[in-house]
Amino acid sequence: MASPVSLYSSNSLDKHISSVSKDSLKMEPLTDVSLLPGEDGVIEKEVIYICPFNGPVKGKVLITNYRLYFRSSDSDMTVMLDVPLGAISRVEKMGGASSRGENSYGLDITCKDMRNLRFALKQEGHSRRDIFDFLFRLAFPLAHSLPLFAYVTQEKYEENGWNVYKAMDELRRQGLPNNKWRITFINKNYELCDTYPTVLAVPYKSKEEDLRRVAAFRSRSRIPVLSWIHRENQAVIVRCSQPLVGMSGKRNKDDERYLEMIREANETPKLTIYDARPSVNAVANKATGGGYEGDEYQNAELVFLDIQNIHVMRESLKKLKDIVYPNVEESHWLSSLESTHWLEHIKLVLSGAIQVADKVSTGNSVLVHCSDGWDRTAQLTSLAMLMLDSHYRTLRGFEVLIEKEWISFGHKFASRIGHGDKNHADQDRSPIFVQFIDCVWQMTKQFPTAFEFNERLLLTILDHLYSCRFGTFLYNCESARDQHEVRTKTVSLWSLVNSKTDIYLNPFYTPEPNMVLCPVASMRHLELWVSYYIRWNPRIRQQQSPVEQRYRELLALRDEYLKKLEELQLSDSSPAPRVPNSTASNTPSSNSSTPPQHRTHLQTHF
Amino acid sequence: MLMEFSEHIKTANVEDVVLRQPLHPPSRGTLCITGHHLLFSDREDQSCSQVLLLLRNIDAVEKRSGSTGTITIKCKDLRVLQIDIPGMEQCLNIAHSIETLSNLESVPEMYPFFYKPSDQSLDRQWGLSTLEQFFQETKGLASQWRLSTVNKHYSVCPSYPTSVIVPKCINDETLKKVAKFRQGGRFPVLCYYHHKNGMVIMRSSQPLMGANKKRCAEDERLLEAVIGNSDKGYIIDTRSIQQSQQARMTGGGFESKSCYSSWRRLHRHMEKGKSLQESLIKLVEACGDESHNMDRWLSKLENSKWLSHVQTALSTAGLVAECVERDGHSVLVHGSEGTDSSLLISTLAQLIMDPSSRTLDGFLGLLDREWVQAGHPFRKRCAHSAYSHARLQQESPVFLLLLDCVWQLWRQFPLALGFSEALLLKLATEAYSSNYGTFLCNTEQERYALGIKQKTYCLFQALLGPMNREVYINPLYEHTDLAIWPSVHPQSLQLWRGFFLRWTPQNQHLEEAQKEIKNMIIEQTSSWNKLENSVSSQEKPRVLITGGLGQLGVGLAEILRKQYGTNNVILSDVKKPPPHVFRSGPFVYADVLDYKHLRELIINNQITWLVHYSALLSAVGEANVALARKINITGLHNVLDLALENSLRLFVPSTIGAFGPSSPRDPVPDLCVQRPRTIYGVSKVHGELMGEYLHHKHGLDFRCLRYPGVISANTQPGGGTTDYAVQIFHDALSTGHHECYLRPDTRLPMMHISDCHRATVEFMEAPECQLSLRTYNIAAMSFTPEEVAQEIRKHLPQLKITYSPDSVRQTIADSWPVRFDDSNARRDWGWAPAFGLEELVSDMLHTIRNKRTNEGLPINSL
């Protein structure tokens, strides 16, 4: 007689209770691999996937110029992997030709998206050599003078996502230019600042020479420019890099005057300067020529927001990965989570943004910077704008926000992510953008009806942050993108999204145009984003918002009924009416993803 | 009574008091204290807001003196209020009154005895279902189990209800002996029966084994009886092995392997009592920590261990459910007293396995049975909550832990539970202080002694009232028969913010957003419902009737055509239709033996319903068995195949003739032995079985009614055994003499044709989900030739009737049932006949008389 098959027994007392359950084996929906236009398979091989959840799984792996695809051959247990090569940060050989032990010879793959993959191969005949070589070449094309997949793909979409953001349109939406702020094209050839966009909004009173002189005093010439203006009170969010104060405590009258012009634009009594860094770091930066605004800036107050740098964030996420992959920490989960400090960093970023938003909504202009103004600054300004401006909480508005605050203002995606680059230990890599998306997710949890988009969009964005399938996140700044003709030679991620928006929309979205969101950045109200960070673990119940899905089904059914009703009313007058069969077989379904049995299923319960 | 309270109230009213409460700005007003309430009214505001707080809800009072006194009130629902009172003396008086009145011990003085809701009356049922009802409603239980009233005077076990469910073969004497061997007399009783495999969950207290390893043969026999034919059972002991061994030193113990060889013991250490209370206190302290330094929040949360208690409870319940559902074995759950963890585990295991406990009504019923009636000592456990400074006695938040676990289930399966988070929050508050009597005492015995059920109102009944129901249901609830296996990894469990951070503005905001979402869903659901109705009312079937020129086809077609349009109903037969039939609507030639032609008909006409009336009836069939076999069986197979192939809704009539002499005759149920003695009957049973087989195997929408003898004035019967009942009316009005081919006492079920048509149409229109069967008896009346003759004589006293029984038909009639039991049809799709014998006779005479008059035939009316 069989013993209970137990999910609930980890106690050594009950060794007779084994611990495998059929329910837990489902990984991803089973589909045959369908390659993208322009995607080509290069090698197919029998391997054993050392699955951390189910043990070794025999199957076939297919490597293409875009992905690594694995499918188990065992019919009663389906395991499937579909990993874009762009998500791979490291490929290593494991064991040698003479290694002993089962499955000790093969490949060890580290991914950027919170998982690792191990494959075992046959030891005879250098069986891993070819697959290793292909993987290494295709996962790190830049090291082999190969193009990124975004330049190879032939995908076509109804909508061109590159049209989502046009700097001038967005400024005009905000009511700019006006009598206090003007648009300057001083950077149209990236001469003033090579990491800024070409179109900039600056104080009306400032002259082009002023801008050049200020650029000389700001790290990497990233001068203070307007990011967002409050329609009613005209308070602004201005972003820049740190001033080049240095050890000697240099001053720059032009910079001081320029900040005064920003303050004057809406007669803010005191311009608040948010320095995202901890104050010690700001001080330490003086040693390398940087620093912060001192007392010489009259009518300004400086607030440090204590957000750590890219290295701290990288290590924090690494620690988080250690406690969730491959095995989740069981016995001291909460204190282990605490010791990663990941949620604490999230809290600091969010609470910084809240302060910015609060200042601006009460009519005070603010200036935000960190060291170079492309990591923490982007987090703070974009999150504050998300709180202040409901437009950014729509699907397209959110795309604009990312395009504007992150992409055009030179968040160094290429360095932070390392697209196509084999140097996995590069100290420039850091999950700053992931952290931003996490903060957005926290906000969507706290305000479930305030965002037009859903969690799926956030997951999709993060997946394609690494995938290299779209040009959106490639390169460090606009000048580099121009040089590599990203807009003409690659497809935008927003083409994919905007061609099929329905799956990314939050059905509970209720627009409230003038509402300022004020999230709580208390640890008590923050949650680990389990459905992102632990999504590879099939044993953790994934909350893919069944409520949202069910509601969406209801909406789809409503549409179907409306359509049917219309048909019926049309056909009613004719002598021999065509009556659709009650099963959906000859009724055109408005939503093919809703299986017909759902309807009968629903009928019984309402 | 009031005097006793007023003793404790030195200052009843204070003016100019400032109230600070969470989520509201401070407000100034008057504070009143009564025997049961603290009442604050805000005078400044025109709207005059009031705060009414049940004193019983107050867990702790702290006073701080200064120029004005400040009282901090900490409530059992975790709310913290602050009241500034001018004047030290008044402040001290108020604080003293609150302290005394909130701690009054005497149950009959508590508020539920004074509470009089306007919309309820005391004579309503108290509680949701008694164990007797539970026993009766649980199908399959009665074969192995019985309801025992051994405890009717609470003499065997003071904490059990008067009735319990025990193995059938164990008598009350044995139970009494077992009770002596179990702590507090809590002998093993059944609390859950798993329909799918007949396995059960039992619960009890620990056996009183003691240091010298006492045994109790009756106890062993009782548990052996639970095992029955199965090979073993599991005992889930909610203590660690060490604890259960130590329990022997104080007279307790466990079921040793040698004495209970069929049972395997599994130990799961579950915290209870004091350590659980302390865990709650730590958690609430961490949640209320207002200091800005929140760095250590997660560690504090972990250190409180609350979530690990949640995890243990859910995983132990999961283990129980696995034993029962996956492994197919019965389980006995107990710890020491059997009034805390055992109830927690059995309740959660039932929620995991049993869909009927996941609805709003089902869940409250479960709580009523497993907590209130089963003797969870609410009064002791919920005397104080997390803030009290009083020395801990027997407080323990076991019930709160249950609600938290249920919330985790609810979060992981938001569609599978039929109730809302609001219900759990409500219960968490009410368990500690309430207007209702439900949670007042420790046991049913105490409730009985205090007259709780006569003098107080029942919370569960109130929650199910029409106004409340809307608040407490889950509009997205979707029934599932599957077990809901919770994930118990710490990553899958969460702090129940809705309860523990309930009074923070953020949570308030989130709650509002959730409410908004709920409203959207409700709105959507109702608009969807309306749409569905209007679609289904407009979506008309296309009907083909075979054998349409028999007794029933034309009449049915007429009704269906009225409902669905003339062109949507096609009559067919192999005969030439009379002119009025031909003119009344589409008629086609169709031979049920010609498969190909029938198929063409169905496809070309987009048929969705098929009514298969083509058959040779009993008497005619016996005369030509070969033809009957062809038409009734081969023809039916053609029709079944076509219905399946084209997803048709198929109606095939069956008959009283489908029963034989070995079937129960008075009345005959839907399901019984069917051994008919006619080819007609045999072919009909064959049809019933084939249709149901194809329904179960391939989902064919097969529907079958067993018609009694059908009596109609306008159409001639088709050669059945009940034909006399039509002929007799014609004879009565023509010759005044009827010669009956049946004996005068031959009783048979009969029905007026209009009832028969209506039954057919209503049955065809019934949604599939309402049908628990595919073949139903329908009945209207049963009479003998003598009885119908008597009834006719009321109108035509001269009717003469002679009897010359015909051996073929009499034999057939004698093999048939005399009455139909149609209770399933009445219950499932609302069948109810309109014609009884009296109505039938007057209608028949009236119609036939008119007909004869119209046709110029003489009428014998004298």
In short:
Chain B: Pfam families: Epimerase (PF01370), Myotub-related (PF06602), PH-GRAM_MTMR6-like (PF21098). The complex is a heterodimer of chains A (606) and B (862). Chain A contains 19 helices and 14 strands.
Structural summary, described in words:
The complex is a heterodimer of chains A (606) and B (862). By secondary structure, chain A is an alpha+beta fold. Chain A is 34% helix and 13% strand. Chain B has a 7-stranded antiparallel beta sheet, with helices on one face. In chain B, strands 17-16-15-18-19-20-24 form a 7-stranded parallel beta sheet, sandwiched between helices. In chain B, strands 10-11-14-12-13 form a 5-stranded mixed beta sheet, covered by helices on one side. In chain B, 49% of the residues are buried. The mean pLDDT of chain B is 90. Classes of the chains: A alpha+beta (606), B alpha/beta (862). Chains A and B meet through α7, α18 and α19 of A and α8, α9 and α20 of B. Chain B: One of its GO terms (biological process) is phosphatidylinositol dephosphorylation. Chain B: Catalyzes the NAD(+)-dependent oxidation of L-threonine to 2-amino-3-ketobutyrate, mediating L-threonine catabolism. Chain B: It comes from Mugilogobius chulae (yellowstripe goby).
Which consecutive residue ranges of chain B, at least 5 long each, have pLDDT under 50? Answer: none
Supply Rg of chain A. 27 Å
Q: What is the molecular shape of chain A?
A: globular
Distance N terminus to C terminus of chain A?
A: 42 Å
Silhouette of chain B: elongated
Measured as a percent range, the helix fraction of chain B is 40-55%
Beta-sheet strand percentage of chain A? Answer: 5-15%
Helix content of chain A: 25-40%
Q: If interface size is counted as residues with C-beta under 8 Å from the partner's C-beta, which chains form the largest one?
A: A-B, 75 and 84 residues
Strand content of chain B: 15-25%
Radius of gyration of chain B: 36 Å
List keywords for this structure.
A: 606 residues; alpha+beta; five-stranded mixed β-sheet; 19 helices; 14 strands; B: 862 residues; alpha/beta; seven-stranded parallel β-sheet; 15% strand
